[in-house]
Amino acid sequence: MKPEEFKDKVVIVTGGSRGLGRAIAVGFATEGAKVVVASRKIDTCRAVVDVIEDAGGEAWACAAHMGETDDLDALIEGTYQRFGQVDVLINNAGINIAFGPLADVAAEAFDKMVAVNLKGPWYLASRLAQRMSEQGGGCVINVLSVAALSTPAYSGIYAATKAGLKALTEVMAQEWAKWNIRVNALAPGSYYSDLTYGAIEAIPGYGEGMVQAALIPRIAETEEILNPIFYLASESFTTGITLVADGGLMAKR
Length: 253
Ligand SMILES: NC(=O)c1ccc[n+]([C@@H]2O[C@H](COP(=O)([O-])OP(=O)(O)OC[C@H]3O[C@@H](n4cnc5c(N)ncnc54)[C@H](OP(=O)(O)O)[C@@H]3O)[C@@H](O)[C@H]2O)c1
What we know:
Elements: E1 10-14, H1 19-30, E2 34-39, H2 42-54, E3 58-63, H3 69-83, E4 88-91, H4 107-134, E5 138-143, H5 147-150, H6 156-176, E6 181-188, H7 194-202, H8 206-213, H9 226-233, E7 242-245, H10 249-252
Bound molecules: NADP nicotinamide-adenine-dinucleotide phosphate.
NADP nicotinamide-adenine-dinucleotide phosphate binds at residues 14-15, 17-21, 39-41, 44, 65-67, 92-95, 116, 143, 145, 188, 190-191, 193-196.
C-alpha cells in the first residue's frame, strides 16, 4: 500500500470487538483511518475504541447484530452522521454454532448461521453500496474461510454460508463496478481466535488436523491475516476475487 493510503478513510469493521476484527480495527486506525467498530456488545466495541483513542486514533463503537436489518440500517446512518462517508466495509463478523454432522444440526442453528454469515453481509453491503455510489465509489471486503473452498466434513453449514458469501462477492463485484466499488473476499485458514478455540473444543483433533493440513504447519497469529486485508483495501485493479491466506492448505490438497 502507498504511504498514508488509509489516512482519513472511513472503515466499518463488523465483528470488530474481538479476534480478526479487532486486529483489523486497530490496524486501520494505526494507519490513520477513522474506524467504526461494530458487534453485538457495545462494551467490547468501546474497549477497542478506547485502545485506538489512547493511541491518538479516531473510532466509533456501534452495537449491531448482523442478523437484524434495523441494526444494520442504524449502523449505516450512525456512520454517515459521525464521519460523513464510508470508504471501506469489512464484513468480518461470522459464527460457527453448528459443528458436527449435518444430520445433527438443529434448524434454528442453520437459520442463525445464514442470518449472520450470509444475509447480514449481503444486506449491509447492498445498502451501503448505494450510498458509496453517491460519494464516487468504495471498497467491500467479505471475510470467508478456506472452508468455503475446501468444504470440510463437520463444518457443513459454516462452509455453505461462506461459499454463499463467495458467490455474492462475485455478483456484487459485477453489479457495482459501474459505481467504482471493488468487492473482494478473503479466505483465511486457521488463526488463533475464540472461534478457533471453539472448534478445537468441539471437534476432536481439529487443531492437529489444521496444522497437518497446511504447508506452513501451524495455526497463524491473528495479525498475519491483516496484510491480505490491507492489500484488498488498497487501490488496485483487483475485484471479484477470493484471496486465500491459508498457509498453503488448499495447495497441499
Ligand atoms: N478463526 C479462524 O481461524 C477463522 C478462519 C477462517 C475464517 N474466519 C472468519 O473470520 C471472521 C472473524 O472470525 P474470528 O475468528 O476473528 O471470530 P471471533 O474471535 O469469534 O470474533 C467474532 C466477532 O464477531 C462478532 N459477532 C458474533 N456474532 C455476531 C452477530 N450476530 N452480529 C454481529 N457481530 C457478531 C463478535 O462480537 P460480539 O460477540 O460482541 O457480537 C466478535 O467481534 C469470521 O467471519 C470467521 O468466520 C475465522
